[in-house]
Amino acid sequence: MLTPPTTAKKPTERVQHGDVYIDEYEWLRDKDDPAVLAHLHEENAYTNARTEHLSLLREQIFEEIKGRTRETDLSVPVREGDWWYYTRTVEGKQYGIHCRAPISSPDDWEPPALDDAAQVAGLPGEQILLDDNVESEGHDFYALGSFDVSADGTRLLYGVDTEGDERYTVRVRSLVAGGEAFPDEIEGTGAGALFDQSGEHIFYTTVDDAWRPDTVWRHRVGQGPDAEEDAQVFHEPDERFWIGVGLTRSRRYLVIEAGSNVTSEAWLLSSDDPTGAFTVVWPRKDGVEYDIEHAVVNGHDRLLIVHNDDAVNFELVSVSADDPQGPRTTILAHNPAVRIEGVDAFRDFVALEYRREGLTRVAVACIPEDGGSSDDTLHELHFDEELFTVGVGGNPEWTQPSLRLGYGSFVTPSSVFDYDVRTRELTLRKQQPVLGEFDPELFEQKREWATAKDGTRIPISLVYRRDLVTPGEPAPLVLYGYGSYEASMDPSFGIPRLSLLDRGVVFAIAHVRGGGELGRLWYENGKKLHKKNTFTDFVESARHLIDEGWTSPDRLVAQGGSAGGLLMGAIANLAPKYFAGVLAEVPFVDPLTSILDPSLPLTVIEWDEWGDPLHDADVYAYMKSYSPLENVHESHYPRILAVTSLNDTRVLYVEPAKWVAKLRDVAGADALLKIEMAAGHGGVSGRYSAWRERAFSLAWMLDVIGAHPTGE
Q: What percent of the chain has pLDDT over 90?
């Protein structure tokens, strides 16, 4: 019988607010210690040995994912300036190839047809801007964090991370045949670097020792790699705030945004004056969040602002761009049943994104023309499915006559639509191809509602194959949850999930409090001193699915990642009897240790989400009462697989490493640790590598719930 690695105990004492906690595994934090690395390699070897019997199943699932995916493919082109921009993938290559092709005429807004020839060879006149396969050569990990083309189309900047630590090196290329080679190389940047309107300057961010983007810099193109010559444009000293820099769609303004989890502030600068001083839009006010969008109404520059000042679910107002702190015009007043999430402005229309009844929505209205009138009533786009996800994306052009949308559901593959604002017609540009025998009519999606002990109704979204699952007859089921940061886990399509569904597995999402599915209060009631609602909502969702005959405890696996990994650790302690297995991906399972240490990445900004246990004894006691690591106890735990990455800067690998060790020691739990030795928070890079990692997790879950046959 295989024996798990022995984790040495080296007690470390933590004393806080009079409480003494002995942490026996804190020594695992030092990843430069050869003993730590040796231990992690032992854990991987043990996990590989314990799951060796699943190797054929993993390979089968990998081939299923690969066989259903069109490997040589091309995204729907997006027009920007005089070019159509798109990304191609090629069979056998891990990464995408970023390309562009010239438009036929200035009035051409119809994307080129994506026929078979285009899928393989690209569009006529194609220019390859960046081939990620070439850039990634010689690296175990590769991620692109910045990608921008100058307004005149002659220069490209791109930022690359080859470690997984989310620090990027920015470089510049000429896109003109025979053009100059730029010496620029800016190391240690955050994501999202961009050109100013002239293309002569680059704006970028750097991070502090806690990995927080805290400073905006301006770099003059052509000055070389000497960052000492770059100008500091903005610095944010408050450790609760992250910053970013961008350019409005109109290209009229550069924007710096500073935001904590509960407060935001924006600064503007005319793009005609890139070396000038930014000015604040609304001074920050604790607890007030806002986003800005530039619009032109009757020839006047206006800022459309979505904010929550005395409007918990946010409202939309308009202010003068020249006097943003002056009079406000309310466009959409606060509605407790509608959570406004964002607004996009174009020359001739605006698009509003919002959430109602737990689902995303998009509405469009025309902007009145100078000296005339137009229909400025918001028209909501309607879709026939019970569950769906829709959102605005890929719309860089100020003057475009249509709106690009992304749409999908559990049963409808990801789809790209263009909405003609004048005719109100939707045109499908592309639907994610699913190769092989895929029949959407075989799949059923529906919504269930569980009831929490306080009477709150918790939505659960489900999908299954109607020919393999009979409601009321218990089936193997995977229940996914997250429940933090107001992030909504909306129904969407996934090719890897078909490998579950085709084996008779039901997939479900518990939309627990702490997420944003039902508005801002749904989030507020699942954070800080209400955090336990997230955990009990998930448990009640599992109980509901069992009571309604969807599944049984021996056929139910829980899945969650990052903050959802905290949820996994909490429910494993809270209600282990309901679950056969728990898959915890990059799990935040030692929250108190992390949130007590301001020197760790993300800690201080996280106090707005979890509370401040360093200075508040009540928060400390509350977090200690649910910390997955600190509440492991003698019990019969479900089978557990924790997946993490050595270079993760968001949830450090040490948390799941300590958790697995304690689960084995205290409870004798069957717990496995799988750690990627060359990856970050998002896991491995490269699509084939990612598919293999996904196959590993899917095979493990199928083994736990006993659903190996394909069901065919």
A: 87
